[in-house]
């Protein structure tokens, strides 16, 4: 499960994937398709992620977070990444 934002941090996108590196590459390569949410709002900066033991748990967590208010999502992101710096999976130390 992961959360992306745009350059000015005004939009959040919550998604789920079994390959976060590939997924981030796809988001950043073309900023998503123009007609889809991530392309329309240029969400390509990873600011939060969680690793789940299985797909069912990851999907359940994604659904849970998607139903949260923006304030609650902001609080969650701040627990892992208080500066909202884009996370580079190659260098991230948590």
UniProtKB/TrEMBL annotation:
Q: Which PROSITE patterns match?
A: GIY_YIG
SUPFAM superfamilies referenced in this protein's UniProt entry, alphabetically = GIY-YIG endonuclease
Keywords assigned: Endonuclease, Hydrolase, Nuclease
* Matching InterPro entries: GIY-YIG_endonuc, GIY-YIG_endonuc_sf, UPF0213_domain
The molecular function GO annotations come to: endonuclease activity
- Residue ranges constituting the GIY-YIG domain according to the UniProt record: 1-75
Family affiliation: Belongs to the UPF0213 family.
Tell me what this protein is called.
Answer: Endonuclease
Please give the organism. Hymenobacter caeli
């Amino acid at each position: 499960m992961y959360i992306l934002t745009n350059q000015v941090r005004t939009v959040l996108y919550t998604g789920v994937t079994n390959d976060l590196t590939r997924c981030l590459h796809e988001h950043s390569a073309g900023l998503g398709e123009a007609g889809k949410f991530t392309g329309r709002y240029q969400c390509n900066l990873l600011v939060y992620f969680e690793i789940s033991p299985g797909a069912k748990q990851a999907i359940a967590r994604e659904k849970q977070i998607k139903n949260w208010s923006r304030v609650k999502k902001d609080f969650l992101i701040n627990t892992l990444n208080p500066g909202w710096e884009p996370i580079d999976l190659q260098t991230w130390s948590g």
